[in-house]
Input
Amino acid sequence: MSITVVGSINLDVVALTDRYPERGQTIFGKKINYFSGGKGANQATAVAKLGKSVRIIGSVGNDIYGKNLITSLQENKVDTTFIKKSNSLATGTSIITIDQTAENTMLVLKGANDDLLIHDIESAFSEIKDSEVLLVQMEVPQESVIRAMQLAKEKGMFVILDPAPAEGITIKALDYADLITPNRQETEHLTGIDVTDIDSALQAAKAFEKMGVKNSVIKMADKGSVVYQSGQWEYIESIQVEAVDTVGAGDSFAGALACGVIDGHDLVSAVKFATIVGALKVTKLGAQSVPTLSEVKAFCEERGLKHYLLETAL
Output
């Protein structure tokens, strides 16, 4: 059994600052870091660090940055067989600013991610035989995401759509999703509903159901999440930690959720586990600073959260 991720692979240029500059203003920052990133790569890394077999289908530039990003994925035990090296576009880059509250702003230059074409998707899927879950986001071309979802459905795979970022979302992707995991901004973009509490999250979940997606996890950041399954729902509280860097928290959540799904756990249990993983991620700098299973177990024992662990994580 394995998980397939179709998504972006980026170099993250991360600047730390006490406060954001105002428009037209120049201020001094505190520190700059260069990390491996991209929603697809982040999610694949999360899956691998949590002990599952995972491959990524994506595209980098035929340059030193792309080479380094592939090496980083390989070091984290991600199968990189289906990563394309583009000769026409440079490796994607995210320029990220993090302030003293650990919140971030992000400018994404997609670069070679836009060179992941339908042909590349079809070629990869023709060789994939053992995958049970597909995890997708929206930082690569929409038509490539849709084609991957179509082919995954034909193979009987469970399709998880993390509809991020909001700017890249296409409604058509909902036609092929078994589960959708939007945050507040993405939910409002898709449904017009501003999720501020459990009631509005339920309204959004029901809206997604009418749009054809029966299962959803409506994420409300520090207010927790609502798990909705064909009319039944449950509220999952957030886990309070001291945040350092929120970049990649949603990707860690998505990767952990996919791990729970592939092991056959119910969605509520998988979301509880993903909540822990996402919380631990924000305590470290770097989008791919995902906790290992042993770190998750230690945290749960320390906080008295053993019921948040999946059986396979014990």
Remarks:
- DSSP finds nine helices and 13 strands in the chain.
